[in-house]
Amino acid sequence: MANAQCACGALRLTLNEPPRLTALCHCFACQRRTGAPFSANAFYSIESVEISGASTEFVRVAESGRKVRMYFCPACGSTVYWKPDASPSTIGVAVGSLADPTFAPPVMSVFEQSKHGWVQLDEAVEQFRRMPPDE
Questions:
Q1: Which residues share a beta bridge with 91?
Q2: What dotted CATH number matches 2-99?
């Protein structure tokens, strides 16, 4: 069991199972959301996540054309989680909100077409120019 929270602690998530997937994303929307050159993301079954505290929703259209519903703390502004319309049974969680240096490393890196040239990743991380092909 793990816990994620915003910077002020008002918005919290209890994660009752390990993530289904850990991934980095270099798309411009994630760069703008995080203020960093990429986002580190963990994806969970929506049934395994307990949410407490107030959040504000921001809806954006992803490069796929589908909506992503971002949830951030109205007090401190930290984006803690999101729900992609493309995968309604999944919830994405910002890895940084876990504040756990031992958290599972990413297994893939997506939207590398907009990756900063100086970012170097371990060769074990599967890399994709855009999204991986559907399996």
A1: 44
A2: 2.170.150.70
